[in-house]
Specification:
Largest sheet: 6 strands, antiparallel
Strand content: 35-45%
Order of helices and strands: EEHEEEEEEEHEEHEE
Distance between the termini: 42 Å
Length: 172
């Protein structure tokens, strides 16, 4: 069994619980394997850190479709599962005391206000410095699809949100 932290912004609750694997934790949080995005919340210089799983299109849905929370300057839509990882990337126990402070938002407007005041990083989709979409505008899913098309056609490497790097190699 592995220790995870589940987050439910609708009820403004976060708790730790043990599950046999990440799939079981996702199911307990109401998330579906294959429909989530993984991100890094925090990484120590020794390689260990905290990761988050959220619904992959949560930020692209209409703003009033979700409840919101943030950790540090990142905004998240809907429920989430946090887990620890070691220097090799393997999932390890995460205890609640290790989780950064969670800020709850009453609604999308409150999150938008925090973003406008510089307390949250903007949520946006862009390619090569060109912004294609910014939350909470409609059309985010379409902008993400357009960005994916452009990135696939562009031979340069890509960095997404500063922590996801896509290294393109020429066909052999």
């Amino acid at each position: 069994m592995t220790q995870f932290v589940l987050i439910e912004p609708k009820t403004k609750r976060a708790w730790e619980a043990s599950y046999p694997d990440l799939s079981a934790a996702l199911q307990a949080a109401g998330l579906r394997v294959g429909a989530v995005d993984h991100g890094t919340v925090w990484r120590h210089r020794n390689g260990r850190g905290i990761a988050v799983c959220v619904y992959e299109f949560g930020m692209f849905d209409p703003p009033d479709a979700h409840h919101y929370f943030s950790m540090a300057t990142r905004l998240y839509a809907g429920g989430a599962v946090l887990y620890g990882f070691n220097a090799k990337g393997a999932t390890v126990d995460l205890e609640f005391y290790q989780v950064p402070p969670i800020k709850w938002y009453a609604n999308a407007r409150a999150a938008e206000t925090a973003m406008a005041r510089g307390k949250l990083d903007p949520v946006r989709v862009g390619v090569a410095g060109e912004e294609l979409w910014r939350w909470p505008q409609p059309g985010g899913k379409e902008a993400a699809e357009e960005a994916a098309r452009r990135m696939a056609a562009d031979p340069r490497d890509v960095t997404v949100d500063g922590d996801t790097h896509i290294i393109k190699r020429p066909a052999q």
